[in-house]
Amino acid sequence: MESREQSNRSNPRSSAESLSRPSAIVIGGGFAGIAAARALHDASFQVVLLESRDRIGGRVCTDYSFGFPVDMGASWLHGVCEENPLAPLVGRLGLPLYRTGGDNSVLYDHDLESYALFDADGNQVPQKLVTEVGKTFGTILKETDKVREENSEDMSILKAFSIVLERRPDLRQQGTAHNVLQWYLCRMEGWFAADADSISLKYWDEEELLSGGHGLMVRGYYPVINTLAKGLDIRLNSRVTGISRRHSGVKISVEDGSTFTADAAIVAVPLGVLKSKKISFEPKLPQWKEKAISELGIGTENKIALHFDKVFWPNVEFLGVVASSSYGCSYFLNLHKATSYPVLVYMPAGRLAQDIEKMSDKDAANFAYMQLKKILPDASEPINYLVSHWGTDINSLGSYSYHTVGKSNDLYERLRIPVDNIFFAGEATSMNYPGTVHGAFSTGTIAAEECRMRVLERYGELDLHNLAMDGEMSTSLAVPLLISRM
């Protein structure tokens, strides 16, 4: 039995409140979890948020150890427009954005003109060749549409590329041009955090891209999530190990032995954590839910931030090393151009990121530095460095989700759908905006609204007539319509 002290600490509502205030527990303090907790708190729910880390943010992590902000996780606002649910908040906070790409960039988040690419001998690739190969890459992508239409069974993007190049000799590249094409493929893999041989041809372009281009968060994402988190009851270092559904509500077990009870729970942990089964469900989740968790892909993209005492690189947004395979290509974000800080961020994805995670931080930073030395032989050594480990971090076990080959298109939707009084949120539950911060944020508001409706209905307090007039949810920046494709 629980001690009285533990029971009082663990129950998100006191006995006096239990009859009058609906309650919920949110698991996971990333953008989805914070958004859900914020919305429920503002709707007068008693809410406790349990976060396994010693900080909030999840896969948003703004590090200040260099003396200025560096995002080691998500760092872009994809879609600088009013339709982006995060845009109003970013605007109200007066946070500057640095535009790195338009709506039609072949690289999704960056424009071609902002690159300086080099071969392994340190020779800069002529910009004309970079642009020409970029157009060829775009043509190959369009040609894969025909391959998709001709084949009822799914295949990988890489296989479709091979079929296109076999059919269209005019699109094949040789020498440096071939290496540049591999670099474009490398950047596409970075968008999905996965290798091209595992990305679904059928569904790779299902994600909806908002208009307005892509804006780098100059001061990092922490000011946004800290604003959303103000006034919330957040318990850090609280790793959830079990979730029990009961007729009367839910019971949540934490690694330190404490328990929490409430009317409902919102699970907003990363897909990688769900895949690891480190959280047990009692009773077990339905088979269709477990299948969605199992079959959705989770990729890895990491950042190695190198802090220098001076700037010695070209004044471009991105530096790249081309190679004969996408695995051998490199990609650096130049933070100096966007933020004035002398920092280059190396961004490996897929198998390369996983291989680098096996190294020590020092060796990983040196690996990134050696890639830089290939193209800039006079590069000075970094005075400091930061290394992310999204693939092996027990709190994430991956960077973001993607469609794997041969799996159903409704997996994101299946992952989102509630199971009784347990609701799900996070970028991997967003059909239209997976892998994005605004996608995670939107799913948090959706889960909160579904939870609120379900609990109030159970309490007999759901007034549909007055629902549209309800002004309690002060953060309800436009809750998307709940449209199921199942």
UniProtKB/TrEMBL annotation:
Pathway it works in: Amine and polyamine degradation; spermine degradation
Any single biological process term in GO: polyamine catabolic process
Keyword Oxidoreductase: yes
UniProt-listed InterPro entries: Amino_oxidase, FAD/NAD-bd_sf, Flavin_amine_oxidase, Flavin_monoamine_oxidase
Entry keywords, A to Z: Oxidoreductase
Origin: domain of life: Eukaryota
Keyword Oxidoreductase among record annotations: yes
Domain Amine oxidase: 31-451
Entry GO CC: peroxisome
Positions that bind FAD: V240
Ligand binding (substrate): Y346
UniProt GO MF annotations: polyamine oxidase activity
Cofactor: FAD
UniProt-listed PANTHER family: FLAVIN MONOAMINE OXIDASE, LYSINE-SPECIFIC HISTONE DEMETHYLASE 1A
Assigned protein family: Belongs to the flavin monoamine oxidase family.
The protein's name in its UniProt record: Amine oxidase domain-containing protein
Organism this protein belongs to: Papaver somniferum
